[in-house]
């Protein structure tokens, strides 16, 4: 019989406030530390989590109150992070994931959030529907 890899998971909920972005990023980093990541791997994941949480705050809830659901799991050397909101949702996910695309009319947003997530993680999946929220699932293999 082969060894079966154990899956460890943590979940948390944070209010949709920009100051919780750092808390989420650091919490996921501490959780993933059990995989003994390099500093570069740690920074990659922290950046991707920051982008996903910021998207939920700014685009998902559009500055209104809401809850951001964060789940992370490790199985073997793979980290999976899920950032979910119950906000306004995304009408066209394919369009939203294009580099430089943003619905921000203030000119403060670059439209690079999903591009950064894809650059820093091995896999990014976005599921969303208008009025039902968005779920971003990101995976990264640690210690190749």
How would you characterize this protein structure?
This protein has 144 residues and is of the alpha+beta class. It contains 4 helices and 5 strands, in the order βααββααββ. It has helices spanning 20-32, 39-60, 93-96, 113-120, and strands at residues 7-15, 67-75, 78-85, 123-129, 133-141. Strands 1-2-3-5-4 form a 5-stranded antiparallel beta sheet, with helices on one face. Helix 1 packs antiparallel against helix 2 (39-60). The chain is globular and about 40 Å long.
State the gist of this model:
This protein is 33% helix and 29% strand.
Report the end-to-end length measured between terminal Cα atoms: 25 Å
Unreliable parts = none
Q: What is the global morphology?
A: globular
What would you report as the Rg, rounded to the nearest angstrom?
A: 15 Å
Counted by DSSP, the helix tally is 4
Largest sheet: 5 strands, antiparallel
Helix content: 25-40%
The helix/strand series, from N terminus to C terminus, equals: EHHEEHHEE
What is the structural class? Answer: alpha+beta
Mean pLDDT value: 88
Strand fraction equals 25-35%
Number of E strands: 5
Strand order of the biggest β-sheet? 1-2-3-5-4
């Amino acid at each position: 019989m082969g060894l079966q890899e154990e899956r460890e998971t943590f979940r948390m909920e944070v209010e949709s406030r920009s100051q919780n972005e750092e808390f989420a990023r650091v919490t996921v980093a501490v959780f993933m530390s059990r995989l003994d990541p390099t500093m570069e791997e740690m920074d990659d994941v922290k950046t991707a989590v920051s982008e996903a949480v910021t998207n939920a705050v700014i685009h998902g809830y559009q500055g209104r109150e809401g809850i951001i659901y964060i789940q992370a799991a490790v199985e073997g050397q793979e980290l999976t992070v899920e950032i979910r909101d119950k906000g306004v949702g995304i009408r066209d996910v394919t369009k939203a994931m294009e580099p430089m695309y943003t619905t921000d009319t203030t000119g403060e947003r670059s439209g690079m959030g999903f591009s950064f997530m894809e650059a820093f993680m091995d896999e990014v999946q976005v599921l969303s529907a208008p009025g039902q929220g968005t779920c971003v699932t990101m995976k990264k293999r640690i210690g190749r």
